[in-house]
Specification:
alpha+beta
């Protein structure tokens, strides 16, 4: 009679390979879930940030529209000769924004809050409307940080003597 000799490797090797494959699949599934959650959180943050920006932009556009309407009223009331001086000292415009002169030009600048960390900076350069009926050029319309960045230079560095 012949005895069948079963090798330990005949049963153990496929089992070990299957266990390793299952462990790899579980690891990849966990990594995929973590990555998807991180992408979801980033997308939520980005959507929120975009929403804040467009809300501030909408407020800024409304303010620009109001300033434009007031400038047209001033141009019709005072004419081209004293329009810029009248616009720079108009109380209604001064309530909405800062007006200043630089290099012989008049500028209107205001900032709209986007969030705690960012502002929307808008600057308009005044000009006589003339035939094109534009009272200003937009020279700045950008997002800026709400606070100044300060470098931490208090690092103790070893300086040999």
């Amino acid at each position: 009679m012949k005895k069948d000799k079963h090798s330990v490797y005949a049963i153990g090797t496929p089992t070990i390979v299957v266990v390793l494959i299952v462990l790899c699949l579980i690891t990849f599934a966990a990594l995929s879930l973590v990555s998807a959650k991180a992408d979801y959180n980033l997308s939520k943050t980005y959507a929120e940030s975009t929403n804040y920006y467009y809300t501030a932009s909408s407020k800024a556009q409304t303010k620009i529209r109001d300033i434009d309407a007031r400038l047209i009223e001033l141009y019709k009331a005072y004419g081209a000769d004293v329009f810029l001086q009248a616009a720079s000292s108009d109380e209604i415009i001064l309530e909405m924004a800062d007006v200043y002169a630089s290099d012989g030009n008049y500028y209107i600048r205001f900032k709209e809050e986007i969030s705690e960390k960012a502002l929307l900076d808008v600057a308009l350069k005044l000009k006589n409307p003339g035939s094109d009926s534009e009272c200003f050029d937009i020279i700045t319309y950008k997002q800026i940080p709400a606070s100044e960045w300060k470098a931490d230079d208090n690092i103790n560095v070893f300086i040999p003597e």
